[in-house]
Amino acid sequence: KLGAKSRKLWIVKLKNKTMGFKVCFFVLLGCLLLVPETTMAQDMKHVSIVIEGASLISETDENFVCATLDWWPHDKCNYDNCPWGYSSVINMDLSHPLLAKAIKAFRTLRIRIGGSLQDQVIYDVGDLKTPCRPFRKINSGLFGFSKGCLHMKRWDELNSLLTETGAIVTFGLNALHGRHKLRGNAWGGAWNRVNTQDFINYTISKGYVIDSWEFGNELSGSGVGASVSAELYGKDLIVLKDVIDNAYKDSRLVKPSLVAPGGFYEQQWYTKLLQTSGPGVVDVVTHHIYNLGSGNDPDLVKKILDPSFLSKISETFKSVNQTIQEHGPWASPWVGESGGAYNSGGRHVSDAFIDSFWYLDQLGMSSKHNTKVYCRQTLVGGFYGLLEKGTFEPNPDYYSALLWHRLMGKGVLRVQTDGPPHLRVYAHCSKGRAGVTLLLINLSNQSDFTVSVSNGVNVVLNVEPKRKKSLLDTLKKPFSWIGNKSSDGYLNREEYHLTPENGDLKSKTMILNGKPLKPTAAGDIPNLEPVLRGVSSPVYVLPLSMAFIVLPNFDASACS
């Protein structure tokens, strides 16, 4: 049978192979020529997109994509699963060649080191008053673990990897050191800066480049496990700013930025923090996003494919940016940590193709609201790791992150569309070249879309006129050439179509333009090759797929 839904032609194999081939060919020929066009395109919908290229609505950092490294020990478990293994800052195999290659593929990947246990980490340097021991399970400890310790030998090894791969580093500091528990989640008392000061001085003495120091993890508002009042937090940020200024004043290293608070956004608490710390203290305001809920939620897939659910979080992005503009215009907003589903992510969801619908939509949505950096929880560890623990083989979201990093530039453009909510559309200036790059996310399980694009003045891509296709047209459509120029010499655009292996949304293999993405036999990250199509031809988007479309000749003056 031949149809837009099945997209497959099942043919009975005949005993006589020669006769079978002839019959198959003529069956195919007859189907292509005789099936009415309405049947072939019964689920096809036409969509017009207008990209307003005269001005930018916002701008991201050059290294917008970021990934985290966490502190969890191997015995961190949720819902009868222990998905961390040896994948944290303290126990990960830093010498595995695929780990370094996966980071290097970005050329400059921003990495944030931090997480729930960072406010229980002491640093084995200076006059340490307590023994340097690893995390261990303890009922009375925060998140069920004792305090842990970072040996400077491990810090040296970690920096060797970070330096070799060209990573841009944000390090999360312990903001509870010296404090004591008051009641409930609330902690009080003075922050002890000595251990942090010794650690920063050691880092400078070794010449390690840190882009930014972050203060605390999820201590804002009511907190997660622990909380600190905005007034106390703000005063301690002034102290930490002074520590950083003094430590770097005689150093040849560039002074890092100060980042805070790395928590869940509560408008009043964030406002008070900026008012208390005052102008020029905090350079970056970070907040965390886990809008899909718990990792064991049976409705995770349903949420990811629901456009109205995905759009709800836009109000948080908008409010964070507005709070900063009103009370701390000297600072920039970052998503400091986001894994979609909390408690290590969702098994067979966060590590599967389906998650890229959520992840790429988050990147597109957050960038529209002036978010400069978006840090994915995690690079390795839990079910939401971009890389698989132990093997470091990329999961589907790794390739989504890499394509965004390579194709989507800093400039964010406004988009208007007459398409349904299930077709999500984002547009940026192309990265490192002229033109515009579109991200199309089709959440529909039924509808194909053909897309025409204009800048409001000139139509750039036309929807194909309705006509009966010739056999040659039909046979050519699924195939294209790869390279910089087509055989007829006309200018072409690049297309990167992402689909799951065998149509299984929970597959851990992503298909790019019909080819599975897997490390090569030599253990390298595979090339991400586009297909080329004529710049004026329509764009086709399959059901439950995503596509990056690079438009080289799009007239967007804001991108010039």
Basic shape: globular
Low-confidence stretches: 1-42, 463-490
Structural class assignment: alpha/beta
What's the gyration radius in Å? Answer: 26 Å
Helix content: 25-40%
Overall mean confidence score, pLDDT: 89
Tell me the span between the first and last alpha carbons: 49 Å
Number of strands: 27
In what range is the share of β-strand residues?
15-25%
The number of helical elements comes to 13
Describe the sheet with the most strands.
13 strands, mixed
Keywords: Glycoprotein, Hydrolase, Lysosome, Membrane, Secreted, Signal
Family: Belongs to the glycosyl hydrolase 79 family.
GO cellular component, one term: plant-type cell wall
GO molecular function: beta-glucuronidase activity
Description:
It is built from 13 helices and 27 strands. With 560 residues, it is of the alpha/beta class. Strands 1, 2, 17, 18, 19, 20, 21, 22, 23, 24, 25, 26 and 27 form a 13-stranded mixed β-sheet that branches. Strands 3-4-7-10-11-12-14-16 form an eight-stranded parallel barrel, surrounded by four helices. It has a two-stranded parallel ribbon with strand order 5-6. The protein is globular, with a radius of gyration of 26 Å. The protein starts with 16 loop residues before the first helix and ends in a 9-residue tail after the last strand. Residues 1-42 and 463-490 have low confidence and may be disordered.
